[in-house]
Specification:
The protein is of the alpha+beta class and 499 residues long. Helix content is 36%, strand content 20%. It is built from 12 helices and 20 strands. The protein has a 5-stranded mixed beta sheet. The chain has a 4-stranded antiparallel beta sheet with strand order 3-13-12-6. A hairpin with a 2-residue loop joins strand 1 and strand 2. Helix 3 packs across helix 4 and helix 7 runs antiparallel to helix 8.
Length: 499
């Protein structure tokens, strides 16, 4: 549901426009400078946090004055506290100082703080330490058993990488005499350009017509931009809060009676022999993909050759960096080929089915099988499930995840008898009870569709989500010398739940 407020749609649908940048030499240096500033802020924020924790532990074990105990106990954990801690540190003597000698030969100590902080946007520092706060929260939640999935380790210091790195900037809106002016602007200096604060207008390879039309008509607004370097290229990812899709491309609404009907659900079986098989509960096969690009397997000969080239170079030399750059670019081509295939499959599924059922696969456990680990990783089952969920939510459809222990492949779709043993080599399922014979993957897809019709009440509405916020510094919480530091008027990712 979309609500029009001040010519802007307040919705909970978020999308990302990724644009390949074509910066000039000077802009490339500015982007690298901002990337290094983000890495520096993350490492310094982590250093301040660890120092405060050590001081707090010492104060807890030693007999010191009460004032010292109170001061040492202030350990920054959240994004707010880390922003304040870093902003206070960057003006101190520890961040920078210099000796000034006057004409009389008198030497004086001048505290400069972080001298180069004016060369980059302050938002880069703040967003980096906000990411550190999220990492610390994930670590503490994992230790307390509140984090689902694999255990999360403690945040570590980031090392310099010439091939990978990123930073994030918010889209601050300032009021001028001509009206409101956004810090991140699309198409201002040409149809294929993006203007970033502190860097300027950067040309991009991709067409921005669709995004410009949405921004002009008030159907979207840019929340923040993430600039990343990967494979020797700079990419600008614009996170956009957009209006709902046109009703013509959305699925029609269903009542509870339609949800209970077995014919409305489609099961999606993901595998290695057949990447995707989709079928209805009555046994009708609606989609079958027998071949996948297998991008990693096809690229293995070139990867081996490029990897040998890297290993033969002297570490730290220019030739070594050039060889690493060639290897990274090749891996990016493999990734792009895989994601292109997954997007085609997910688009075909969400356009033709409004209710899908997928399995909760234990992909991490499957990777323990070293014979199949490479093929499973190349199939990217988790990425396909992620795309199905958010694309189906955009169209008003439903995606139900079957229980991990549901034997979809071993259950007969005709009599529901469970087969005790079924090897991976058996591509044809034959029921020992009723003699029903069918394709193994088709049988699993039919069972998933039947399971969805029986357990449809477990599905949450696509908009039944809570609010997501980014840490933003409140007004008045310390000195502010930079005009682009955070305030409550900044655009965040606060989303309004649909009524």
């Amino acid at each position: 549901m979309s609500v029009l407020v001040s010519n802007l749609f307040v919705v909970s649908r978020h999308t990302t426009f990724q644009l390949v940048a074509n910066p000039t030499a000077e802009q490339a240096r500015a982007l690298a400078r901002h990337e290094g500033a983000a890495r520096f802020a993350f490492n310094q924020g982590l250093r301040l946090h660890l120092n405060a924790r050590r001081a707090s532990n010492r104060a807890a074990t030693q007999t010191v004055a009460r004032d010292d105990i109170v001061g040492a106990a202030k350990v920054p954990w959240t994004g707010f506290d880390l922003i304040n801690a870093f902003n206070a540190w960057k003006r101190t003597e520890d961040a920078g100082r210099r000796f000034v000698v006057d004409s009389a030969g008198v030497t004086d100590l001048e505290v400069t703080g972080l001298a180069w902080r004016a060369e980059v946007s302050a938002q880069v520092f703040e967003e980096a330490v906000v990411d550190l706060g999220k990492a610390l929260k994930a670590w503490t939640d994992s230790r307390r058993g509140k984090h689902a999935g694999r255990p999360v380790g403690h945040p570590r210091f980031k090392k310099k990488n010439h091939e990978r790195g990123s930073f994030r900037m918010r889209n601050k809106v300032s009021r001028t005499k001509a009206g409101e002016r956004a810090a991140i602007r699309v198409g201002q200096n040409g149809p294929r350009s993006v203007t970033l604060p502190g860097i300027g207008a950067i040309k991009v390879h991709d067409d921005t017509r669709r995004l410009r039309r949405m921004l002009t008509r008030g159907r979207a607004r840019v929340l923040f931009a993430t600039v990343s370097r990967r494979g020797g290229r700079w990419r600008i990812s614009l996170n956009v809060e957009a209006a709902d899709l046109h009703p013509a491309v959305q699925h029609p609404a269903h009542d509870s009676a339609d949800d209970a009907a077995p014919g409305g659900w489609a099961g999606v079986d993901r595998g290695l022999h057949a990447p995707v098989v989709t079928a209805l509960a009555d046994g009708t096969q609606t989609l079958r993909i027998d071949t996948a690009p297998k991008a990693l397997r096809a690229a293995q000969p070139v990867i081996r050759r490029l990897s040998k080239s890297v290993s033969r170079k002297v570490k730290g030399s220019a030739n070594c960096r050039a060889a690493v750059r060639r290897l990274v670019r090749h891996h990016e081509r493999v990734r792009a080929r895989r994601h292109d295939f997954l997007h085609q499959v997910s688009n075909a599924l969400v356009k033709t089915h409004d209710r899908l059922v997928i399995e909760d696969l234990n992909i991490t456990g499957m990777l323990a099988n070293h014979r199949l680990a490479a093929a499973i990783s190349d199939a990217a089952w988790g990425e396909l499930a992620r795309q199905l969920r958010y694309k189906q939510a955009w169209r008003g459809g439903l995606v139900l995840t079957a229980d991990r222990w549901f034997p979809s492949s071993k259950t007969c779709s005709a009599c529901e008898d469970v087969k005790t043993t079924l090897t991976l080599a058996e591509r044809v399922f034959t029921c020992e009870n009723c003699g029903h014979t069918t394709d193994r993957d088709l049988n699993a897809a039919v069972n998933l569709a039947t399971w969805g019709a029986k357990h449809h009440s477990q599905v949450l509405a696509p908009e039944a989500r809570g609010q997501v916020t980014n840490a933003r510094r409140p007004d008045g919480s310390g000195r502010r010398t930079r005009a682009d530091e955070t305030s409550r008027d900044d655009v965040g990712t606060l989303t309004a739940t649909a009524a």
